[in-house]
Amino acid sequence: MKRRMLIGGVTALVLVFSGAASAQSAASKAAPSASIPTVSLNNVARHGFYYAGGTYVGELGPDKESTMGGAMYVEVMVPKQIRSPYPVVFLHGAGQTGVDWLQTPDGRPGWAYNFLDMGYVVYLEDYPARGRSQYVPGVDGTAERSNLTIRTAPNLEETFTASAARGDFPQAKKHTQWPGTGRIGDKIFDTFTKTQVQFLAGPRQETLTRDANVALLDTIGSPVILLTHSQGGAFGWLIADARPTLVKAIVTVEPAAPPMKGVDAAKVAYTDGGGLSWGVANSAMTYDPPVASASELQTVLDNKAEPGKVACYVQQEPARKLKNLQNIPVLFLNGEGGYHRIYDHCLAKWLTQAGVKTEYVEMEKVGLTGNGHMMMLEKNSADIAKYMGTWLAKVARAPSGTATTKAMPPTSIPTFSTENIARKGFFYAGGGYWGDRGKEVMRGAMYTEVWVPKQIRQAEPIVIFHGNGQTGVDWQQTPDGRSGWAYHLAQQGYVVYMVDYPARGRSAYVPLPGPDGKPIDGALGIRTALELERIWTNARERGDFPLKMNHTQWPGAGKIGDPIFDTFIRSQVQFAGASTDLARDAGVALLEMIGTPVILLTHSQGGGIGFDVTEARPKLVKALVTVEPGGPQIGSADTAKVTAGPRNPRSWGLTTNKFQFDPPANASSDLNVYLEEKSDRPDEVRCWLQAEPARKLVNWKNIPVLSISASGTYHRVYDPCIPKWLNQAGVKTDFIRLETVGINGNSRMMMLEKNSDEVIKFIVSWIQKNVQRT
Fold first, then answer.
1. In 3-state terms, what secondary structure has residue 440?
2. CA distances (Å), origin 558, targets 444, 547, 554, 759, 774
3. How far apart are CA 704 and CA 770, in angstroms?
4. Which member of 40, 207, 355, 738 has the greatest number of CB atoms within 10 A?
5. Secondary-structure percent of the chain, ordered helix, strand, coil, rounded to 5
């Protein structure tokens, strides 16, 4: 008996060591490389996102339909130990998004994590019409002109990163804190440039951002601290003016300035245009005595200019007071080596004269030397955060007995435990400089978020490609506030990568004209509410396809006015004509950066991108899971009539890009195809297939494919065709009609529907059965 126990014990010990070795091997293969920065979540208990504000706008297209506009993407993180009852709401600058606060371009934790370490709940936003917040063509700009602009790389060098070498303002030589040369070709600069996105020009950005932040503060429901930068500075004053009782303090870093007139930084002289017409912003502020228009503010030039600074426009005495800012303390930081040194003191004077308790700090005087305008990304960024935290600890101290739990996000702002996620981060895959010398812009880079589980148990990371009009948020939360597929995958031990395609979301869209005079990244479009109802959320009432009455899994009424639908449509963003081609190249770059074979999980538009990426880098794709992949296929289909369209002469079977076949095909026309005589089911079209003997796909021999189709989707009409094509071309492909495995009632957006967990569990079980371990 003892001997048997010993043998059993040895066997168990071998299994334990074997399991440990397997997990160690998986972790070593799947963990992100050093070139992919991640930040520890040791001090983060929960995270999530939310869309603040937004209204239905426009009469878009020939049918005069509306869509959501003005909603603002807000990311929230909660520390494990909340030490302040006042959350920090971060407002970024022009051409930037919330990524400013997450990481520095040399890979260090950003201010968001510095403040989490101090015990603050943090909110990071992408302004309306920017980043993951939709820009509505024809509403946020005219139908003929997008009203969007983007900074060139040389402009970024001059003003933000290489001022000492290229700046033309007096303090330029004192800029020493940028981490790198700050020039095109320097890795850190190129990384920074990829974070710079298009932005809306003109006063509309002010009002959109003010209104969305008012909605955010109303939802949070208790006082917050505003931390603003550059363009965000003006927004901060407007928000505090609208909700003074919900703002405890403001920290502003080189905010939009100066009052009244613009300044030529090189000449240190005022210009005819520019400036903040209401003193601190270009939208109306509440003064006492009141003014009906900015022209009623009587100003004089104080003629007290210091070397390297302009004299300031101030109010004639007795000065009007900024009535709603009187009880809000302000810390105003100005860097030693930035162009803002020329005029920031004037805004500080205006605030003080208007009765705002403002502490203006020229940073070198407190030991923070050499900073430029983008100081949150510079070498001493953590020291600056510490300085701000020390100031806040003094002036934004909570009254005795105030519970720090007041800072916890309300239930209307969903957050989820990070218990299974050890680290997360972001980076940009691909991209390159485009344009004439001296006018280059970064184009084609793809924002990629990575989550690393606490226990990596799978050797292959999962890379997820989203659909058209969406971003990487699809995989993180459902519109009814449940955790998304990314959480389930992390729980299973997968490293997860989620992208925003180039020209979408947090990846820059280049609106500059190409050789044909049109935007180089193509025209912008956006889906209307009625279109979303027809195809995804309210098919039973609005759809025109055979299986529409099977759709039962959408969590809500699926129409305008239903809170879940209204939340969903806020996540639907504009899309650009060049996005698919750019995403293919960026996807290849992403796989090369990861450097180890991955499992691709694709949806809709992402299906075609995944096919192209697999064809280009087959050795880096272990398996492909495609959820109702987009096209084009060999032929289109009429989903209402269930009829196949003509053969697309440009198609290579999966997309219009070339695929390697055996025997070789030199052109898509070499593929000998025919239309099936009969479809498998009456609600599915006949498929275009190759005439036998069929050519085989050379690069896909060892890549298993799962293709799934829901029971209540218009896509079922033609979803069987791609799997048939793949199998005929020698690719082992499982086509699963989900109802055949007990998953019923879904539409195309199954990752957001009531039974989303069932769907991802089925996908994971297929992966674990069909992916061979090496």
1. coil
2. 34, 17, 7, 20, 45
3. 7
4. 738
5. 30, 20, 45
Q: Would strands 247-255 and 462-465 be described as parallel, antiparallel, or unpaired?
A: unpaired
C-alpha 646/C-alpha 635 separation (Å) is: 5
Q: How far apart are CA 598 and CA 592, in angstroms?
A: 10
Q: How far is CA 450 from CA 31, 461, 496, in A?
A: 10, 10, 6
d(CA 211, CA 215): 6
| Four-point Cα dihedral 213, 476, 498, 460, nearest 10 | 160
Let me know if 747 is a catalytic residue: no
The CA–CA distances, whole Å, from 193 to 98, 165, 686 equal 15, 18, 48
Catalytic residue (one of 66, 133, 230, 571): 230
E-strand ranges in 35-147 read 39-40, 44-52, 55-60, 65-69, 72-79, 88-91, 122-126
Task: Judge residue 657's burial from the number of C-beta atoms within 10 Å of its C-beta, 0-12 exposed, 13-18 middle, 19 or more buried.
Answer: middle
Residue 20 CB partners (closer than 8 Å, separation 6+)? none
CB distance 546 to 717 below 8 Å: yes
Question: Torsion angle, CA of 740/745/751/754, rounded to 10 degrees?
Answer: -120
Eight-class DSSP state of 363:
G
Inter-residue contact 136 to 575 (CB < 8 Å): no
By three-state DSSP, how is residue 406 classified?
A: helix
Among candidate residues 409, 406, 431, 480, the one with its CA nearest the CA of residue 753: 480
Query: Which tokens in the block code for residue 1?
Result: 């008996």
**pTM of the entire predicted model:** 0.95
DSSP, collapsed to helix, strand or coil, labels residue 403 as coil
Task: Report whether the peptide linkage leading into residue 546 is cis, meaning its omega lies within 30 degrees of zero.
Answer: no
CA distance 571 to 328: 33
Across the strands, what pairs with 739?
none
The answer to whether 140 touches 147, Cβ cutoff 8 Å, is: yes
For 490, the token pair is 């992390």
Both tokens of 157, joined, read 């060098």
Residue 480 and residue 554: Cα distance in Å, rounded? 10
Which pair of tokens denotes residue 87?
A: 């959350």
Angle, CA 6 vertex, CA 3 and CA 11 arms, to 5°: 130
Give 10-residue mean pLDDT values along the chain (774 residues): 36 45 73 96 98 92 87 98 97 98 98 98 98 95 74 98 96 97 98 97 91 98 98 98 98 97 96 95 97 97 91 97 98 98 98 98 98 98 98 93 91 97 98 96 98 97 97 98 98 98 98 93 95 96 96 97 98 96 98 98 97 98 97 86 94 96 97 96 96 97 97 96 97 98 98 98 97 72
What does each C-alpha distance from 638 to 250, 630, 647, 711, 715 come to in angstroms? 56, 14, 13, 18, 10
Residue with tokens 């001997």: 3
Q: 105-110: long-range contacts (C-beta < 8 A, 24 or more apart)?
A: 105/179, 105/180, 105/188, 105/189, 105/191, 105/192, 105/195, 105/377, 106/179, 106/180, 106/188, 106/191, 107/37, 108/381, 108/382, 109/39, 109/40, 109/382, 110/376, 110/377, 110/381
Distance CA 103, CA 427 (A): 9
What's the CA gap between 156 and 721, in Å, rounded? 48
Question: Pick from 669, 667, 688, 670: which is nearest to 679 by CA?
Answer: 688
287 secondary structure, DSSP code: E
User: In angstroms, rounded to a whole number, what is the distance separating the alpha carbons of residues 297 and 301?
Assistant: 13
Closest CA to 223 of 115, 117, 85, 83: 85
pLDDT computed for residue 22 by the predictor: 58
Exposed (0-12), middle (13-18) or buried (19+): which is 108, by Cβ within 10 Å? middle
**What is the DSSP annotation of 498-557?**
EEE-TTSTTS----SB-TTSSBTT--EE---HHHHIIIII-HHHH--STTGGG---SSS-
| Cα–Cα distance for residue pair 571/416, rounded to 1 Å | 18
